[in-house]
Model the fold of this input.
Amino acid sequence: MLMNRRSFLSYGVAGAAALLLRGTPLAAADLPQATPRLRLSSWLKHVKGDLPEQLAWVEKMGFESIELRGQWETMAPVWKAALKNSKLVPSAMDWSSMGHIVAGSAADREKSLDSLKRAIDVAGDLNTPNVIIVPPRLNKGLDLPSAEKSVAIMRDTFASLAPRAAAAGTCLAIEPVNRVLVNCINTMGEAAALCREIGQPGVGIVFDFQQIMREEPDLDRAMQNGGAFVRQIHLSSRRGHLPGYAAEDREKYLQGFRGLKRIGYGGICSFECGSPNSYMEKVGESMTFLRNIWGEV
Done:
């Protein structure tokens, strides 16, 4: 693995070295006691204006990166041109669900696999450290196989593409999602087990606060279960709102940020939450809430 800017953005030196050399999450006693600063990223979904206006607002708010979403195949050159005039860098690029690769027709599987390969190449061209991938969704009308078979297909797919991702300077980042929405990979432990089986540096995990809150009672322990495989953080309340406005947010973010510091995470924490009417108005207060929590743990 190349320890370049892209690698550092998501791993931190300690985490990247651990994943490369050991291929497994660190035990709690071995975790580096680093205290990196909180590095915040924004998505653009609820930011008004054209792309240059969106980037200007995000930068003005104090974010240092953006998460790329939408029609990435057509938007890639637009993003690349706009980011040349910005201090912002990409934190991740959202790809899609594994549904058609796991359960689609032969033609759909081939089409989706080709799309994922192109997404890896685009991420490399844009200096994007992570390509976010979600397990097969239950609401897509597909006849999904068992969870075990789904995981086996995902394992084989990621294993075959991990060298391509590593060569591009990016990572296939698997996002555990609650069991109401997907048929497998619901917890950090399950995602880490998959990464451990693959045993290659081009595969990692997204820790999504909203999803993990729905599946695991202790976010500190969940983060430790992910260990050195954790590559990206999604910030949200349990109901998809901005962090800091729900009664449980304080305790849950104390747990999660404690775990982040425990594993020495030096990467990006990206907002994936809010509504069109609240995001731009309230995200500043949410950023303050998160920074205060970060300072407490």
